[in-house]
Write a structure and sequence with these properties.
The chain is an all-alpha fold and about 230 residues long. It has nine helices and no strands.
């Protein structure tokens, strides 16, 4: 069941990446989708999905604005993840709780959305290309997803005696029927990673566009204020 879910999620991710590709490369994206049927493991499917995402985020020569938007937003995502990664470390290894608090989860989600909006706003200020904010948001979302899952994997394995006492992991381990907590946690992370990547990629496209719209409105408002200053 987990394998079927992973394959379905990966197919969806490749389809989204194909839709984001330049028209000249979409045939290649469709070929990658067909190749997924012959992938024999999760790692092979992950490599195909990452390859499709790379092509979507790095358009052919002549689309320098898109490449620049992806590069800048990827760097922004890395910087934005530093406090987020520190919070994940503190909450799971230094001051662990039996389960995640609702307020903490909502605060983390809000922080991620702000980072994606900022990526779109930065792209709009740097480029007039209509697709640049969307590409920027996708790149930021993908980078945040990769860094987030890598951080959870590192912490869960390095601090297994602490993480294994979290109530959610205890309940999931009992229901899984597995005999190793480490294997259960790693299997859960592997099954979750494609979904996290898809959610943050889609959110990046949406909130990147919102960030661009907000940046345009702020620029227009500032221009109007300068032309017609209040007495």
């Amino acid at each position: 069941m987990a394998g079927d879910l992973s394959a379905a999620v990966t197919r969806r991710l490749v389809a989204l990446a194909t839709a984001a590709m330049p028209p000249s490369r979409r045939a290649w994206g469709r070929a990658m989708s067909a190749e997924l049927a012959y992938a024999r493991s999760r790692s092979e499917r992950a490599r195909l999905a990452l390859g499709a995402a790379r092509v979507a985020l790095l358009p052919p020569p002549g689309a320098a604005d898109y490449r620049g938007a992806a590069g800048r937003s990827a760097a922004l995502a890395v910087i934005a993840f530093v406090p987020l990664g520190l919070e994940v470390y503190l909450a799971n290894a230094v001051f662990p709780a039996l389960q995640d608090s609702t307020a903490g989860v909502l605060a983390m989600d809000a922080y991620l959305l702000v980072a994606l909006v900022a990526a779109g706003a930065l792209a709009r200020r740097a480029s007039a290309s209509p697709g640049a904010p969307v590409i920027a948001g996708i790149a930021a979302g993908l980078v945040l997803a990769v860094l987030g899952m890598a951080t959870f994997a590192a912490i869960d394995n390095a601090f297994l005696p602490i993480v294994s006492h979290q109530q959610g992991n205890i309940d999931g381990f009992r229901e899984s029927g597995m005999t190793s907590m480490r294997a259960y946690i790693n299997s859960s992370l592997e099954a979750t990673a494609p979904g996290v990547a898809i959610v943050l990629t889609i959110a990046g496209a949406i909130f990147g566009a919102i960030g661009a719209a907000l940046a345009e409105e702020a620029t227009s408002a500032w221009s109007r204020l300068r032309r017609h200053p209040r007495p």
